[in-house]
Predict the 3D structure of the following.
Amino acid sequence: MRLLSFARLSRLLIIVAIASMLLIPASATFADGAVTETWQVRDFTDTHPDSDRCSGVEGDVTITFSGVIHMTTTPNGAYHERSTWRGDAYFVPYDPSLPTQSGKFRTETFTILNSKTESHLWNFKVHVERPDGTKVQWEELWRANMNANGEWVVEFYKLVCPR
């Protein structure tokens, strides 16, 4: 089972943003005027409906994760964000005849915005152990770049499903 679909990324980031607001960010100002802020989230849990991108099976996923967000803004308006999240996931299909699955996941996001480009990269990896002891790994990678004219010049999406 793919434990967290691409469509749920925005929900996860909203949850993380809300959780992050509850924390006091650490920040630093550099000589060139750039400001960096860092937020840490620890042992945050969320349960939500999701589906397996490889098989289409629907169910509920519960994730418990920790992570960090680093955001840097420069005086000229450029922005750089990097986040890394790791945790445990437990998937329960709505169809009781299908097995539950549990495992570990890791996701990383990168965003760069400036007056000329906008770039986003998202990488998601899951390591799952099925009830029969079989271990499986999935990976999802997404990238998009926009030029100063507002045109998407690179769009890349790859989903690697287990065999």
Summary: Confidence is low (pLDDT under 50) at residues 1-7, 18-24.
